[in-house]
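Anyone else keep sequences and structure tokens together like this?

Example one:
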Amino acid sequence: MAENTALWRRGGGWLLESPQEIYCPEDFDDTIKTLAEITRTFVERDVLPVLDRMDQGELELNVPLIQKLGELGPLGAEIPEEYGGLDLPKVVGAVITEEMAPTGGFAVTYGAHTGIGTLPLVYWGTEEQKKKYLPKLASGEWIAAYALSEPGSGSDALGARTRATLSADGRHYLLNGTKQFISNSGFANLFTVFAKVDGEHFTAFLVERDFPGVSLGPEEKKMGIKASSTRQLILENAQVPVENVLGEIGKGHRIAFNILNFGRYKLGAGGVGAAKHALALSATYAKERRQFGRPIASFGAIQQKLAEMATRTYVTESAVYRTVGLIDEAIAGKTGTDAILAGIQEYAVECSILKVLGTETMDYAVDEGVQIHGGYGFLQDFPIERAYRDSRVQRIFEGTNEINRLLIPEMLFRRALKGELPLMEAAGRLQEELLEPDFDDPEGPWAREEAQVANLKKLALMIAGLAVQKFGTAIEEEQEVLLTIGDLLIDTYAAESGVARARKTGLPLWGDMARLYLDAMLGKALLAATGVLPRVAEGDDLSMYLSVARRLTRREPFDRIGVQREVAAAVLAAGGYPQPAASRAG
């Protein structure tokens, strides 16, 4: 791929310019496919057979499993080769995360170790720190954890109260405070801990489990992800050598906030894997379960659920790999932390989109999976019950979905004010365009769908422009409006990703699901616009903008039921998420 010069290649640029191409799973090379297969085999042979035991409290089983992943390779996918890793593109980490998702709590162990636990050291560690710790983390000899949250600070990460004070001899920082909800804490050897030096300068530290003054609370009794360890990390004059400061004093926010982007797109990938797992469980059960003399898979009500689960999974998968492909393109050939992080930060908006989209697709799939199983879905004997419980926390991880919904428009506004995206100019041109009596009826393959996606973008821009015009800087207090704009942007990005992938591959099944999702989002967008426009406009202006919203969300009737039945048939034939082998692409 070329350099990120075109507007559509830049973060948020898709709102103003349609993509000419996207990266998608059909582009996976042999390395990606091999590591995916290695991970899938590991999950099936090593993790799933002991997952019940781990769920029931045998958390020590996490340790040999992590060590085996170190032997197999996936553990070091994003660690540089000189420190024992494979130094592979980000798409590989996303694919491994997707394949790991069916393991629930163990997937959290893996993700906390390889992502937020290890990557701060990869990007901000000194040469000495990397040589000391990364080989152990790549092999699984040591397990990593990340300690940011505190009992009194959740979404307000910078409100942390943990303090760090330099010792009298200047050799150690003494850390005092309590960290909450720390994944891997029961068996982690190395923690990335955030504290305020002298109560003021937010800073990251590398804290070993055996340092004096480090202790743990008991295991939290969780609703789900029971196979993972979650405890408090208690610091009482914990002695941390000065050479274990990670990054710069007072610059801990750069680590904390940048690392969230990695976590967010990986939560999107994990959501895809968990949704596929729920779909496979549901399709298998639906074919086996008989009611009224026939399999419940033969009933339209069940087929509709399976089709919707597959459709949402398809567009989410398309959005995830579209984004990670752009990230890999942006950082290819780059050296140095600042250059690499700039490439990832470029797509912070998209990472937040993926976090919300992926976790809510997963939630939808496991919820419908339980419904398809009926009463049996409520029993622990059936894996869908654990999948349902394990999914819920994902909407809280890495910033709640509400926080991410608010961040999406806020980050776009900031990019516009900095001159990084010409959103204001586009909004100005849009005002004139919206006064035109009607829009042209496009012709050609995918032309109508692409025009409908473009109209969704116009609707989001229109509402955002009206909101900024009315509220100015006070728009931060209009969270309900921002949430609506965020939803429009999430749905539009997902719909466009599905359409672009279907157009690229020429796969009829992908085309069916892309159209199903887009049609549903047009209806959803009209409902959202009708609800929010009275907040940003009134009188004759309101009537005009409501009329424009109806035009921008105009839908062409088609046999949704018939198309959903075709998608369901493909799901049932595959026993889960379908994988079309043929392409009509030229």
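And example two:
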Amino acid sequence: MSRLSCALSAAVPCAALLAAQPALGQDATPLQEITVEGAAGVGSGTGGAPGVATNDGYVAKTTRTATKTETPVNEAPVTINTVTQQQLQDRLPQTLADALAYTPGVRVGAYGFDDRFDSFTIRGVDVTYTGVFRDGLRQFNSPSGLFRLEPYGLESISILKGPASSIYGASSSVGIIDLISKRPTDYKFAEIELQGGSWDRKQFNFDLGGPLNEEGTVLFRLTGVGRDANTNLPGVPDDRLFIAPAVTFQPTEDTKLTILSEFMASTLGGSTAYNNTYAPYVLKDGTVTQQPTGAIKEILFNPDYNQFTQQQGRVGYEFEHRFNDAVSVHQNVRWSGLSTNERFGDASGTYVGQVKEEVSAFAADTYLKTQIATGPVGHTILTGVDFGHLNYDSRIGYNFAAAEDPDLPDPTKQKQRLVGVYVQDELKAGPWRLLLSGRHDWMDSTYRVPGAASAKQNEGAFTGRAGLSYVTDFGVTPFVSYGTSFNPNSGTVIDPDGAGPLTGGVAKPTKGEAAEAGVKYAVPGYNANINASVFWLKQRDGIVYTVVDSINRQTQLDFRSRGFEVEATASLANGVNLLASYSYTDTKILKLSPDTVGNQVNSVPKHAFSMWAGYEVKQGAAKGLGLGAGVRYTGSSFGDDYNRAVIKNKPRAFVDAMLSYDFEAIDPKLKGVRAQLNATNLLDKVEQVCTASYCYFNQGRKVIASLRYRW
């Protein structure tokens, strides 16, 4: 249900179409600081940089993602799921999709194994292009140029459920995924790690930080990764070079400036998803022109002409200055850019293709934070303005005569600018918490195809959010919330029920609304949380792809989603860590084509369940030993919006496992030395999955062994 259904398919008309498409309260006094003790990078959510988030093991305590303030997770009247630093270390995810695999309501793996892009849905809505933020700022993308993630460079991941446009601007009706970068620490630490594993994997990681002067007013962090690896597919490497320097200047207690930067170069396969049983074309009447065999796993790409190289970088800063106890100013700024070169061809040698894209983006968010009291009611008020600018060039060409780079045409270009102003008030009166926010956005875009006149678009919208929670003394917090969303879309779409050309009218903005009610429970006396909620959302004019007359075409979809989610997290003193969740997601198409209305959205299972449990032995002969295991269950779903049984996805479950040992248990001189073994898809279960009328296979068993020394 996204551009990826086009990007991952083998159809030449689809690739040509893809290239032509554009990217898309608190009291008057400050909250009491929550301090979490722990070793460097372990347990604390910020690695020594309180104020962004605090976590204790698997349990999130505070986060800025929900409100841009240090709101306790259990008090915010919204659903927030957090992938903490401890979870990242225990599970060793290699991609963003891997990291989100145990998050309730998040669907990963819909396109099988394809490490070129991180694709996922939240509560049935595809947020691959519009839902990923980095340190509170939108991460812009182009059709084939998506910023990739190195999980080793993160402190944590916050998943904010529900519309967030009222404070973040252009985003989805189901919320955002905020990637929290590692930051400089106020204590000295360092670690190095060696990894090896499946498919000739060789990797070296390092992470170090601390004060640069005696006064502690200048802090640094330097994180890096180097990897040389293959995958289960021939001609598909997984090589990477990553470096992320960061510096914090804090001349006074009232002023702080943190500079965050990153460079990453990666080499992957130009085509990875063509390892499929069949690639069916679904006609308007729902007829499948090719039937699945269910037995053949044929590689349909050319391993000798199959390379995807990408270089990406970002640099920005976070600045905050406190004028007094009540008023402070905050500004987050980032420039980012990437360059891609993708080569691919079919196994029969009929053609080769090449796609090159250049992306540059700028984002800035400035807001004033004011804390006041009106009688018994405390207010934390944000008044802000943010700005975003995207510029990208895209070129695609084909060679039907030889397996060499084709001549590329002049680029298709897009420029997009977003400006928004917003206000938010967090009100606190006794046990009551009321959250109110409103925003207006303006967007203008210029889109130009070579040889054609520029297409210009101007859009604007107001969005809002309201939430109410009641914080009890015994840990229970019921809440309700409602919000609206707005995300502009440039480019053109086609009516799937018509017989027009590949391009049609200008795409309408995607708008949505959502309501939620739930309860949060911080278990008294234990470091454990249980959260449950019911939700309803409706999204209009979402950009999707659907197969019409054997061609994957961009169109727009109206649908609604409703369901239920429950999540439990715990990190207990006896060494037990637990992460468990269940989600029920019921989707219904409201507008696409007459023969799909009333159907379920493709590849969105109604039922999903996951559980990860870990145990570290604290005493006795086995002290230092760590064990972990998890299961991820995905229920059945349809492989197309016609809900044809012929490509229905059957239920499936995958098992993961972890084994670790801290050598300090043997000898105190070995403090900081840790060995770890992780297995993903331990039982080597390879299943076919169909999404948007195309079918793929997941990756088999992957084993990673690591040896880490931290001091």
